[in-house]
Specification:
heterodimer; A: Methane Monooxygenase Hydroxylase, Chain G, domain 1; 0% strand; B: alpha/beta; Rossmann fold; six-stranded mixed β-sheet; globular
């Protein structure tokens, strides 16, 4: 194994550690939401610092690899991809922190009926599943697995689009519970962003392995490529 | 303790001062790269560590060079003994017109070692360390000159390792080699540092980046900057270093 190979392997390992941490944050965020567990929400907010520290470390690692090894071809694309995935992971970490803050701030419980009709729990599970799938694709260098995420994202988009009407209708019928309902709408918006981050990361994996750029392509085009 | 120390070293060729008040400390089991434009004094400075400049009539040195804390320019130092400890690999592979086997044990023969078992073991071990064993184990009696340039250079490294030095000086060891042979030499350097202290002069800045822990930038006989290689290549402190590593020199 060449020195560069060792450095790239270490970079991959560190990226996966950060990724696992972000995924764990997502799971804890979901649990805190479902159980309205404010202690768990606080834990998520505190752990966000670790995600940020990872981001800085990976940025530095990538900078050093560029400066010291001048990677080319697949090695270059890998480091570029990690640099962007790092960004996506940090943003995902911010999103979970935001969800945890909502859980911390909300005064009353979320109405279980509302959770059901908005399908937010299903959406959260799908977002977490997407993140797990992309992580596995990154680990195994499996682009067909990465492509699965594009289809999984459709569910998140669907729930997000329908949320407006459902929530507007709910507020009309339950005007006493507006605060919690708006928090829930914000959570749905944030989960939709998690899906986007996962999709971006899947695109980066395909970029580095297959040298194909799928950004800004339509869903149909992406599924064909 | 440092493996190598240079304190306030000045070198003259006649009246021409080619090294100007250079001090540097090099730790054990590290790779240190000397970089700088041609004529900056990096090779002259490297050769101070095994007294290769002594052969130049007009050479004069001031200051102190220490290995493991002892001054190697002390009158009691025997240069042959010193060079057992400080091996050197040059830019152009320079195998002797002998067999691969004889090349590796050349230094041991000079030391008077005749025991075939010891010699055989040394050949195998040195060639393995130099990542050449698998390629030559079946033709040890063949002429070293029949090897490719990259193989010859690894043979020269094996020859250096056979006398069990603690320091290896390398003066542009890969500049005459193709990219694959270069990569092999670089991987080898990376592996050897667990056992040896390596100092390498290179014109290839990327090579310095890839293989060294610390980098020293020389310019017109001065040591301009000496720091972690990461720092030299990402955030050098001196403007002259920045200009050199970014290729904006002159």
């Amino acid at each position: 194994m060449s020195h560069l190979d060792i450095e790239l392997q270490q970079l991959k390992t560190e990226t996966m550690k950060m990724w696992s941490l972000v995924n764990l944050q997502l799971v804890k965020g979901k649990d805190s939401l479902l159980k309205l567990d404010k202690d768990l929400a606080r834990e998520v907010i505190l752990s966000e610092r670790r995600v940020n520290a990872y981001e800085l470390k990976l940025d530095r690692d990538c900078e050093n690899i560029f400066a010291l090894f001048n990677p080319v071809a697949v090695d270059l694309r890998f480091v570029l991809a990690v640099l962007k995935i790092n960004n996506n992971l940090e943003r995902s970490g911010d999103i979970v922190e935001g969800i945890a803050k909502f859980v911390l701030n909300v005064d009353s419980n979320f109405d279980t009926k509302l959770l059901e009709i908005t399908r937010v729990v299903e959406m959260y599970a799908a977002a977490n599943n997407m993140m797990e799938t992309v992580l596995e694709a990154f680990d195994k260098e499996d682009t067909s697995l990465a492509r699965k995420v594009f289809q999984q994202d459709e569910l998140l988009d669907d729930i997000n689009i329908k949320a407006n009407a459902i929530i507007a209708d709910y507020i009309r019928n339950h005007p006493d519970n507006i605060d919690a309902t708006l928090y829930l709408l914000s959570i749905i918006r944030k989960l939709e962003r998690v899906g986007d981050q996962a999709k971006n990361m899947a695109e980066e994996i395909i970029f580095y392995i297959e040298a194909k750029v799928l950004k800004h392509r339509s869903k149909i085009e992406k599924n064909k490529e | 303790m440092n493996k190598l120390d240079a304190n306030n070293v000045n070198v003259f060729y006649g009246s021409n001062k080619v090294i100007k008040d250079v001090s540097i400390s090099i730790k054990q089991n590290t790779v240190t790269a000397f970089i700088g434009p041609s004529g900056c004094g990096k090779s002259t400075f490297l050769r101070l560590f095994n007294r290769m400049n002594d052969y130049i009539d007009t050479f004069k040195m001031e200051g102190k060079i220490e290995i493991d804390g002892s001054n190697i320019y002390d009158k009691q130092i025997r240069v042959e003994e010193l060079r057992k400890q400080i091996g050197m690999v040059f830019q152009k592979p320079n195998p002797f017109p002998k067999s691969i086997y004889e090349n590796v044990i050349y230094g041991l023969r000079i030391q008077g070692i005749k025991d075939k078992k010891i010699l055989d073991e040394s050949v195998e071990q040195s060639l393995k360390q130099a990542a050449l064993w698998d390629e030559v184990k079946d033709k040890l009696k063949d002429s070293a000159l029949a090897l490719s340039g990259g193989q010859q250079q690894r043979l020269c490294i094996a020859r250096t390792l056979a006398v069990q030095p603690t320091v290896i000086l390398m003066d542009e060891p890969a500049s005459a080699l193709d990219p694959i042979s270069t990569a092999k030499i670089e991987d080898l350097i990376y592996q050897l540092k667990s056992k040896y202290t390596i100092v390498i002069v290179t014109h290839n800045m990327q090579q310095a980046g890839r293989i060294s822990d610390k980098t020293a930038f020389f310019y017109m006989g001065e040591l301009v900057e000496y720091d972690e290689t990461k720092t030299i290549f990402t955030n050098p402190k001196q403007e002259r270093t920045l200009n050199y590593v970014t290729g904006r020199f002159g």
